[in-house]
Prior knowledge:
By secondary structure, the protein is an alpha/beta fold. The chain has two domains: about 5-125 and about 300-325, Rossmann fold; about 130-300 and about 330-365, Dihydrodipicolinate Reductase, domain 2, CATH 3.30.360. The protein is about 30% helix and about 20% strand. It has twelve helices and 15 strands. The protein has helices at about 15-25, 40-50, 60-65, 80-90, 105-115, 130-140, 160-165, 185-195, 275-280, 305-315, 330-345, 355-365; strands at about 5-10, 30-35, 55, 70-75, 95, 120-125, 150-155, 200-210, 220-225, 230-240, 245-250, 255-260, 265-270, 290-295, 350. The strands form two sheets. The protein has a nine-stranded mixed β-sheet. A six-stranded parallel β-sheet has the order 3-2-1-4-5-6, sandwiched between helices. Helix 5 (about 105-115) packs antiparallel against helix 11. The radius of gyration is 22 Å and the shape is globular. The model has no long low-confidence stretch (mean pLDDT about 95).
Amino acid sequence: xxxxxxxxxxxxxxxxxxxxxxxxxxxxxxxxxxxxxxxxxxxxxxxxxxxxxxxxxxxxxxxxxxxxxxxxxxxxxxxxxxxxxxxxxxxxxxxxxxxxxxxxxxxxxxxxxxxxxxxxxxxxxxxxxxxxxxxxxxxxxxxxxxxxxxxxxxxxxxxxxxxxxxxxxxxxxxxxxxxxxxxxxxxxxxxxxxxxxxxxxxxxxxxxxxxxxxxxxxxxxxxxxxxxxxxxxxxxxxxxxxxxxxxxxxxxxxxxxxxxxxxxxxxxxxxxxxxxxxxxxxxxxxxxxxxxxxxxxxxxxxxxxxxxxxxxxxxxxxxxxxxxxxxxxxxxxxxxxxxxxxxxxxxxxxxxxxxxxxxxxxxxxxxxxxxxxxxxxxxxxxxxx
Length: 385
C-alpha cells in the first residue's frame, strides 16, 4: 500500500477540519478518498467543496465501496464505538475523534474488537503531540521530577456561550452527547492528567449541571482523586468562567513542576524532598531549589495533522502510535467516575462499575426534558482545541 485512502465519517466541525487538511495534501501518503454524513445539507456542501472526492449516502456504502482503506470517525460521541467496530470488522484502519465513547461498557467492547484485529486503531488525542506535553511526559517518565505527591489541574479556559450549545440538538444532552464539559472539552485534559500522573484508584467529585448555561449536563466540576501510592490529585474544570485558567501543578519528590501558558517551570530540589525531611536537623529549613525554565522543543505543526500523520505512518510502516485507540478508555473512566460520584454522592472506585454507570445514565436519558433545537449549524472549530 503506497497511499492510505481515507474516508471521513461525519462532516461536522471536526470532520470538516479533517477534510480540509487531507484534501490540501498536508498528510503525506494519504488521500481523502470518501465522505459520508447523515445530513443531506452537509453532503451537498461536500459535493460542491470536494467535487473529486467520492460521496456516500451511508457508512455501509463507503465501507463496502472498495474506495477507502481507513476511516476517520467524527460523529456525535455515542456513535464512535459502534462505527469503529463496524469499520474494523469490515477490514478498515480506524482513527476516532475524542471521546472514545460515552460509557466504559461500549468502549471496552470496541477495545476488545481492536485487540483481536490486525487493523491500526488510533485516537485523536491531539494534545499529546504538543512539544511541551511531550517534554513533561519525558521528565516524569525518566524520574527527573521524582515520585509524584500531588497534582492540581485547573482547566477553566473552555468557555462556551449559550449559542455554542444551541448550535446542535445533540449538544449538552444526556441522550445526544452523554455529558457536558467532561465528555466534550475535557477528554483532552483528562487524558493528559492520566498520561502524566497515572490512573487513580478512587474519585470523589462534585459536578454542577446547567450552572452557567441552559443545559442539562455538567458545566462545572471539582474532583478529588487518590492513587495507590498515596498521592492525590485535584481536577477543576468549567465552561462558564472567563478568562479562565489552564495550569497543571505537580508536587514531587524532586520539587515542583508547573505547566502553564505552554511553558514548563521546574523548581528542582538539590536533594530529594523526602530525604531532606528525614535528615535535616534544624526544624525550619527547606531544601535548596533551582528554578529551571524547561525548553519544550519546537512543535511539529498542526496537532490533528500530526496525529493523522502518525496514524498513517503506523499503517504503512508500523510506526508506534502516539495515541493508541485503546488509551481512550482512560478519559472515559475518569469522567464516568466523576459523574457517578456526583449522582450517588459518594466515592467511586476505578475501574468504574460499567453496569451501574450505564443504568444511571439511562435514567437521566429517560427523564430528560431537553428539546431538539431547530436550525442546528456547523461551527468553525479552528483554534478551539
